[in-house]
Fold each of these.
Amino acid sequence: MFSFHHVTLSVRDLSVSEDFYKGLGFESVYRWQDEADQLQICHLQLGLAVLELYCFRPENESETISDFPPWASGFRLGLRHFALQVSDLDEALSALHGAGLLAEKPSVVCGQSCARYVFIMDPDGNGVELLEGPLVNIQRPE
């Protein structure tokens, strides 16, 4: 009946965020902009996963995010992070650092549900977990 479709992040600069996620292997598959140039949307795809980026631009640049309707606010409880699985975490971090997407390489942590992981931030401070297998089988409650 239900199937996962996408995760949406509100971002400050669509081009900067789009380039960041392209550096993580996503491909741009859709772009839209409203006639008033107040909202831009970009869909990026990685495998079957779709990441939707929203970029709100008020008519009056002095407006703040709080001036938008509640559904548009990026400053509320919600997404903590999302994760991308990599085959070699050290190689992935070196590639991201070499491409200028990471100023410094973060320290890798041994995980409980995966072999190793690290958290990085996108240009707007959204958390992205990079994790390396093997992944553990998560036990379901009985």
Amino acid sequence: METGELLGKLRGSDVWSVRCPSRRLLDLIADKWTTLVIVALADGPRHYSQLKRDVSGISHKMLSQTLRRLEKQCFVTRTVYPTVPPRVEYALTALAQTLLPTLCALIDWAQTHAPEFPMLEEEVK
């Protein structure tokens, strides 16, 4: 679909309204931690500590909140195994897996074009 067609379709939708369910979904998906956690789970189930290592820079509080939010919205399943101490695994749902190609394309775009944004380097310092 051409860019003009896509924009025309979007302009005719309700996504611009704060009450639109797709807008709320975009808010969830567009969050940087959501994107990174979903992609971190792409290869299969992970323990909390594995996710914490994989997603560099995320705080304990933010990872917990992100996982709870993703579980509530049916993007992630949480499985508790009856061991001592309890073992917990997080995995993507089939629905979340359909989002992976889009998120991977977005990350690829960011990695490809990051050098064109020199101000980003200054923010990290």
Amino acid sequence: MFFKTLSANQTILNKNKKWLLFDAENQILGRFCSIIAKILIGKNQIFFTPNLNCGNKIIIINASKIILTGKKFKDKKYISHSGFPGGKKISTAIELFKKNPCLLIYKSILGMLPKTSLGSKIKKNLYIFSTANHNLKKTIKLNLLNINDIY
């Protein structure tokens, strides 16, 4: 007997995409972002295919109310480089949070996604808002999901 491995194609995956709404209020950054990254990649889907974008579209609200445990707000450092000599910039989590609270969640989720062209397609399915108001209410009807109920 010969069995053939069935693989999902992009048309099947596009039909099954859903919009999910998550609230980041009082959530721990790393635990919250790891679950979001799994859903974005599509690891929770039955038809997960590693070389295709099979995750859902995710909206995160209340990014300004996320929690970091311990001394991470002061001690955690984010490093960026301009590419020029002496172009290294170091900022702490509190500086990044004051500048844009959405950027803290975005950088942590981005670090958990693949670093390929597939990863850049996946990150387009992520929408982060610092307050409870978001501009996608008129186009899509969403129910608020609790992150603790999923995993």
Amino acid sequence: MLLIDEHFDGAGELVRTYLAPVEIAPGAEPAPAEVPAVPAYLALVHEHGPVRRQGRVSSQAVVVVMRRYGQPLTAGIAIEGPRLALGAGASLARLRWRAQVDASAREYLVLCGAGAEPLAALAGGVAAALRHLAFAAPDARERG
């Protein structure tokens, strides 16, 4: 499970968003051998204080969102820590980095691999887009 966003809301409640591989059948607990190494879908877990919601997004949607919002990562910045495999050689990593113009470090998500240079985007914006895809978009499809 990869923590992709963490912040406090206006009322001081902690808000966290995670991405994790999804089991094959929703609600089922497959044996480890049944879980694909590169999932087609990822679970998006959103914790807002005591409330926990879970939706899902495709691995490809994560790549598309990162390509839309990401900018080339500055040369020389090391990408260390946990990564989440997205398929086709791509992975998503979390990076805490402080640019010279920032007063404090910020959280970034970095799309690595996929035959291109790493792309970095502010974690909060990417998490918001993925939350929309996981939770709001299915409601819109149901309304027709």
